[in-house]
Amino acid sequence: MRRSNAFLFSLSGLALALLALTPVANAQIVVHDNFGPGDTYDNGTAWTESGLTAIVGTQSAGSGFTTAVSGNLFDISVAIGNVTGTNVAHVFLSDGTSGVPGTVLESWTITNLPGLGSGAAPTVLTSVLNPMLSAGTTYYLYEAEDGDTWNGWAWNTTGDVGLIFSGDNVNYSSDNTDPSIAYRVRIEGTAAVPEPGSAALLAGMGLSGAGLLIRRKRAE
Predict the structure, then answer these.
(1) Does residue 44 come out as left (phi exceeding 0), alpha (psi in the -120 to 50 range) or beta?
(2) Chain-centre distance of CA 54, in angstroms?
(3) Per-residue pLDDT tens over the stretch 25-42
(4) Fewer Cβ atoms within 10 A, N terminus or C terminus of the chain?
(5) What pTM did the predictor assign?
(6) Are the C-beta atoms of residues 125 and 62 closer than 8 Å to each other?
(7) Could you give the number of structural domains in the chain?
């Protein structure tokens, strides 16, 4: 009986050792998401950004978010559509203070936007620079336009009011009462994922241990 127990303890030790050597895989952690089920958003209302001075003047519109955990930016999903003019959008992520953007951390240029109000799936902006986002810090996501472009960034439908700001690309004002633009932010995280071979070996050792216990009980 002593040898059987010793063998079982050895199996347990080996299993723990294999788990300790389990590789760590990348995972994505959502730090902000106000899309509805199935990435839905308000398909009929949007904050507009345009370089057409005859309509609204050159302006920016966006929102602020505060992350609860730290990590490198992975991607951002946005619900932006084109109204008229050159079909392009310039999206920026920045730090900042007092409710307005500051230093740009990364930017993206989107072409071939869906029409505003088309209900298209959100556009995913993959991070190339992977800037570090620190827990407890507020960051700003916004679109700025110039020339003949007129775009709209759809509102969310989840009741998120967040921090909204708008401006003329120089002077900004903020508001905490209006619906926020629809977007999601993900950072890179880590998660332990057993390799297929290790998982099979662990399962096999578990069955072997169970078999030893069964045989021992039958022998008694």
Answers:
(1) alpha
(2) 36
(3) 568 999 999 999 999 999
(4) C
(5) 0.73
(6) no
(7) 2
